[in-house]
């Protein structure tokens, strides 16, 4: 199971809304959810979010709150993951003993409206990790921007994101730098549809489509190259990399779910709730 932690870390996306779109969320005006991805996307929204999922004996959770303050939108939250005692297996599935893992990070960030069509954002995540009797701590930062180009009743979005730029101040592994990403994407909003296409270095292509079916229901579909690569070997590899999501909407509430197959590891199912404060 140690191999899993070389792929899934504390900063694995937890939000069903993000994963349902294949993580092609860099260009999205996602409100409080964007605190945990591209903080520029908080864009003046006031709300609360809580999400979580469990996969292969590992549990992730996150929760946050955002509120506007003039041209700024401020977000605060927490993110964590933990496991019970697990078998330590290498990439060849050979037993290497037992271990447990706990990680925790308070999250803070802001979105700044330069003008109504241009937003920039920064988020900070000081983190603490403990693997069995070994501890580590450090800090990670996200920095992004979203530029909006109105086209009549439609809009095109350009998004850039430097994600998880981190450093382990006290490492328990040889690698001190965290697994950073550079993401660039284009989004297109037309009435009830939002489409986003992104490229991530070093993880590859991600694409997502969100469809607002009615005032009560929305669906999302996506593709993520990283999920395809980590989920091979089940005999059902054609489905690996595909993600699906569903939102049930009522007044200011949104109940969210996402599903993505992960090969022999089984499906990953996420759940969450968002409450927008008016």
Measured distance between first and last alpha carbons: 44 Å
| Apparent shape | globular
Give the neighbour order of strands across the main sheet: 1-2-3-6-7-8-9-10-11-12-13-14-15-16
Structural class: mainly beta
Fraction of residues in helices?
A: under 10%
Instruction: Provide the number of structural domains.
Output: 1
Task: Pick out the low-confidence regions.
Answer: 1-7
What's the helix count? 3
Number of strands: 16
**What's the story with the biggest beta sheet?**
14 strands, antiparallel, barrel
What is the beta-strand fraction?
over 45%
Name of the CATH architecture: Beta Barrel
Radius of gyration: 18 Å
Mean pLDDT: 87
Order of helices and strands: HHEEEEEEEEEEEEEHEEE
Q: Return the CATH topology.
A: Porin
Considering the protein shown, what is the CATH homologous superfamily? Outer membrane protein transport protein (OMPP1/FadL/TodX)
CATH class, named Mainly Beta
Topology:
Elements: H1 2-7, H2 16-20, E1 47-55, E2 58-69, E3 72-83, E4 86-89, E5 95-99, E6 101-115, E7 118-131, E8 134-151, E9 154-170, E10 181-190, E11 193-201, E12 204-212, E13 217-224, H3 225-230, E14 242-250, E15 253-261, E16 267-276
Antiparallel strand pairs: 1-2, 1-16, 2-3, 3-6, 4-5, 6-7, 7-8, 8-9, 9-10, 10-11, 11-12, 12-13, 13-14, 14-15, 15-16
